[in-house]
Design brief:
With about 500 residues, this protein is α+β, with helices and mostly antiparallel strands. About 40% of the residues lie in helices and about 20% in strands. The protein is built from 16 helices and 14 strands. Strands 2-5-6-9-1-10-11-12-13 form a nine-stranded mixed β-sheet. A three-stranded antiparallel β-sheet has the order 4-3-14, with no helix packed on it. Helix 8 packs across helix 9 (about 360-375) and helix 11 packs across helix 12. It comes from Tessaracoccus oleiagri.
């Protein structure tokens, strides 16, 4: 592809996006059998005749999964079906041994919902077409250098994931976002992740696949009556990647159209290392799957009384929670928007709950740790440090054991797996030096080496002390008590 400017594309084309987010539920067992719903087990150990689709086996539906689906539907402002059924989605692929996936088709449990997102100070309303229940498929393990099928010498199948309860949330086409379309996609998936965590129905760990996004993208000439041909980028597994995948597809499709070729309706794969997508397979329409009602499962008819009981269990709505936290923490709109934009709201909240002040929690997550996450190409909550550990780092600063500079080295140690913050301090010898004798000697050396600066301080230019403090801090490898050093400098150069 040539290097086409994203903004130039938007001068001629209008993007439309549609997002399908799959949420794996944290139920104890699978959707239709009693096998353990556990991540990371040895391959093919959490299986049975039902989830392997062996002849004569009969499924039974997981009641907790139905409850989770209803609660999520309510949180998405959906209507809850009074009567719905499971269906068979037929396809031939090795990830389901029975050659069909038990899902829902034209009778989802939740439908016609909406959410509102704040993106850079603008509000975007995303319409939810449906949220339906289904089971996950097994996992293909391709033996090759990239882990992709195209260079694999053979593939293996792990059926532990086959039958894991899923809820798929499908939006209606999101139009009118223009240049903000990639950011809106990211904000929507972030909103869903925050919501399912608050509902406690999934751990929503994108890196483990328990929350995955399929991003549908199309573009059409400005003013066109309809939408363009869409592509579906499958299983995008981070917020950053959702934004990058949508942005890339908008530009790629524009280049295809500008070359005089049509956009092909297909699934595509996102490549994390390059930020690009590649062709997968032609995209199937619903008719290709030959849906029909699942004959081995009874319909689901949640009573209105039960639905209202579940509505009463919903957590505080995200917008209301954000408004409350901003008031409680006393942040300006700009400072609070920085927390939200960084995806750090929950992390800051947990850090405050662990004992840090809102200001110090914000400082670490929005600046220092966000920088590290960006450099590593991971999401903020994927860093190997917990809110409790960040609060412990700040407590060491508050106690005068370390300063901010040393605290960054403590964070280095925690991220490197060297233990808890206090253990890193001890192992690395990072304690601030407050001993007057040691500091006094270092101050004397700095004064002797910088007579011009010393004279300025003697003449009353106290701000010049910063230069000497910096010299002492450098000489003591950042471990000097800066306040004590300043006190000694002014004392020695007084009058």
């Amino acid at each position: 592809m040539s290097d086409v400017d994203f903004d130039t594309v938007l001068e001629k084309y209008e993007p439309a996006i549609g997002l399908e987010v799959h949420v794996e539920l944290n139920t104890a067992t699978k959707m239709f059998c009693g096998c353990a719903n556990e991540f990371g087990s040895e391959p093919n150990t959490n299986t049975c005749p039902v989830c392997l689709g062996l002849p004569g086996s009969l499924p039974s539906i997981n009641g907790r999964a139905v409850e989770s689906a209803i609660r999520l539907g309510l949180a998405l402002n959906c209507d809850i079906a009074q009567w719905c059924r499971m269906a068979r989605k037929n396809y031939f692929y090795p990830d389901m041994t029975k050659n069909f996936q038990t899902s829902q088709y034209d009778e989802p449990i939740a439908f016609d919902g909406w959410v509102e997102l704040d993106v850079d100070g603008e509000t975007y309303r995303v319409e939810i077409e449906r949220a339906h229940m289904e089971e996950d498929a097994g996992k293909s393990v391709h033996a090759g250098t990239s882990g992709r099928i195209h260079d694999a010498s053979y593939s293996l199948m792990d059926y532990n994931r086959a039958g894991v309860p899923l809820i798929e949330i499908v939006t209606r086409p999101i139009t009118g976002a223009g240049e903000k379309a990639p950011a809106v996609a990211r904000a929507y998936v972030a909103h869903l992740r925050e919501l399912v965590k608050a509902l406690d129905i999934s751990d929503a760990r994108m890196e483990q696949g328990s929350l995955r996004c399929d991003a549908n993208v199309s573009i059409a000439p400005l003013g066109a009556a309809g939408l363009g041909t869409r592509t579906e980028t499958k299983n995008v597994n981070s917020l950053r990647s959702v934004e990058r995948a949508v942005r890339y597809e908008i530009v790629r499709q524009a280049e295809v159209l500008e070359s005089g070729q049509p956009v092909v309706q297909e699934t595509r794969h996102f490549h994390e290392s390059t930020g690009t997508t590649s062709s997968g397979r032609p995209k199937s329409d619903a008719d290709d799957y030959r849906y029909f009602a699942e004959p081995d499962l009874l319909p689901i008819a949640p009573s209105r009384e039960w639905v209202e009981e579940l509505r009463a269990t919903l957590p505080e709505p995200p917008a209301q929670r954000r408004a409350r936290l901003q008031t409680d923490w006393g942040f300006s709109d700009i400072d609070f928007l920085g927390i939200v934009s960084a995806g750090a709201l929950g992390l800051v909240e947990e850090t405050v709950a662990a004992g840090a002040t809102p200001a110090t929690a914000r400082k670490w997550w929005v600046s220092e740790l966000s920088r590290r996450a960006n450099e590593s190409g991971v999401e903020l909550d994927e860093l190997a440090i917990t809110p409790a550990q960040v609060a412990a780092v700040q407590a060491l600063v508050d106690q005068g054991i370390v300063n901010d500079k040393l605290a960054r080295q403590v964070i280095d140690g925690v991220l490197a797996g060297e233990g808890e913050p206090a253990e890193v301090v001890e192992r690395r010898g990072l304690v601030v030096v407050s001993d007057t004798g040691a500091l006094s000697a270092a101050v004397d050396e700095a004064i002797a080496a910088n007579p011009g600066v010393a004279d300025k301080i003697r003449d009353g230019k106290v701000q010049a002390a910063g230069a000497l403090i910096g010299q002492v801090m450098k000489a003591m490898k950042g471990q000097a008590d800066a306040a004590k050093v300043r006190e000694l400098i002014l004392e020695k150069l007084a009058g």
